[in-house]
Amino acid sequence: MTDPLLRLDNVRAALRLRGGEQELLRGVSFTIGAGEALGLVGESGSGKSLTTRAITRMLDPAFRVTGDIAFEGASVPRMNAQALRRYRQRDVGMIFQDPRAHVNPVHRVGDFLTEALVRDRGVDRRDAERRAVELLDEVGVRTPEQRLRQYPHELSGGLLQRVMIASVLLAEPKLILADEPTTALDVTAQSDVMAILDEQRRARGLSLLFITHDLELAAACCDRLAVMYAGEIVEQGAHVYEAPRHPYTIELLGARPSIEHRVERLPVLRYDRAAHELLKAEAS
Amino acid sequence: MTPNETRATGPATAGRAEPIVVARGLRKIFPGRAGDEPVIAVDDVSFELFPNECLAIVGESGSGKTTVARMLVGLETVTAGELAVRGESRAAGVKRLADRRRWAKEVQYVFQDPYSSLNGRQRIGDIVATSVALHAGDTATRRAVQRRALEILDSVGLDERFAAKHPHQLSGGQRQRVAIARALAADPAVIVLDEAVAALDVSIQAQILNLLADIRAAREVSYLFISHDLAVVNQISDRMIVMEQGRVVDGGRTAELLAEPVHPYTRSLRAAVPRPGWRPVRRERLAS
């Protein structure tokens, strides 16, 4: 077997506090193969965003991180500064929930899109702009030449998120980390942005780690799902949405109201930390 | 108006009660910034809210749904049209403090983010007691007010230990319970819930939706439920109206409208909701 593109092996992250340590990632393991999409699903505080930060080695230094993260077989925690920079710039592309927080508001869209190519890869500016225009067109942005001269505040949220997708694709990464990329968008814009991301990713054979709280959305866009609870993956695989086995996943799916039918009362999650620890103790 | 308006008129509950809230041809125009055209945020909106029902206003961002709600509680002025609560017009805006208080007693507002709508320096018990005292009149004794505040907190699932805490010591779901308790403290006829469960985790959202159903089972109150989430709207509302760019484009009984949406905009909203077997689809190219 060849190495998967990304492998997390028993990743733990403990926050150093005055009174001791608090472990917030408690043994996270998964792999993503080339061209594969994994949905990492969980509620707030489950550790899904911490996991993405661990993958790019961007966790706060107050965390003590153990376990291994390997990208194409190379250990990310052991990368030197040069290798790490290359990994972050070329191998991994990131899309965030709030695109506005990740663009410089006083730079034009064109500068934002071409900056990395021109500065880090030595691409000629005109060449970079031509590529940016092509990509904006591919992600469904009308009049792309005009967009390059606009500022971020002149674009709607859905449009700006497409610009973010274009900027990630421009860097030609192997893996896209998308952290709640559509949470701030309307449902129609969400459907649109996810369709574009899905289509572009497949066309290029890119891998995707899709972080979301929305099990249904993740199921529609990913090959496999991993469900996180309290810093652990409780269940993962291709079966999770259709045939969940873990009580937390089952309860989480049941608690979401349905557009098809209405229930007298929504089932409330009984699964909590105590149930979680008990279940783990029984399993071991 | 649209052909669907007829579907939206009758109350969902039985009986021929008078509507509590009536909006007729409601308009709100915000002046544009220097050199810009004025923005028509709400354009010819009509609806009725009946006693003891939940009416949802559904729409995407910028559809004007929040502006309608804000006009109802007097947070925005009305540009044109009629907006009345129990037959009394609110279109002219608040003139006196006594009016504002009387209005607030009838229509209370719960915001999306309880953290920014609760006073961080006030204890939970005091937040609710302040609202009780404000609307109880001068006859209520201090002790009666405190007791009532604790009862209301208890009714939203927060026991008396919470009364001494501050908002920052609570989780998001608990804070939203406090915001609901504060609204209930006025003993209102209408509670406006503006994306009140949108920011909550699924597990907490279910609890708050159940709480809102429990409150309606225990007392007579109407909800004006502002939301972009059709699954949540399906769970909680009797009737809904759909807003697009300031106008009401569709309306009717929620279950019927969502089971067989006819209007193209309602259909597109319905089609964009992830569900079993769903795939995201690309729209036409975006110009904005």
UniProtKB/TrEMBL annotation, chain A:
It is a peripheral membrane protein. Transmembrane segments: none annotated. Keywords: ATP-binding, Cell inner membrane, Cell membrane, Membrane, Nucleotide-binding, Translocase, Transport. SMART domains: AAA (SM00382). Its main location: membrane. It holds the Pfam family ABC_tran. The keyword Cell inner membrane applies. It is found in: Cell membrane. GO terms for molecular function: ATP binding; ATP hydrolysis activity. GO terms for cellular component: plasma membrane. Residues 6-255 form the ABC transporter domain. Belongs to the ABC transporter superfamily. This is ABC transporter ATP-binding protein. It comes from Agromyces mediolanus (Corynebacterium mediolanum).
From TrEMBL, chain B:
InterPro entries: AAA+_ATPase (IPR003593), ABC_transp_ATP-bind (IPR050319), ABC_transporter-like_ATP-bd (IPR003439), ABC_transporter-like_CS (IPR017871), P-loop_NTPase (IPR027417). PROSITE patterns: ABC_TRANSPORTER_1 (PS00211), ABC_TRANSPORTER_2 (PS50893). It holds the Pfam family ABC_tran. Residues 21-270 form the ABC transporter domain. It comes from the Bacteria. GO terms for molecular function: ATP binding; ATP hydrolysis activity. Keywords: ATP-binding, Nucleotide-binding, Transport. GO terms for biological process: transmembrane transport. PANTHER family: D,D-DIPEPTIDE TRANSPORT ATP-BINDING PROTEIN DDPF-RELATED (PTHR43776:SF7), TRANSPORT ATP-BINDING PROTEIN (PTHR43776). Belongs to the ABC transporter superfamily. This is ABC transporter domain-containing protein. It comes from Agromyces mediolanus.
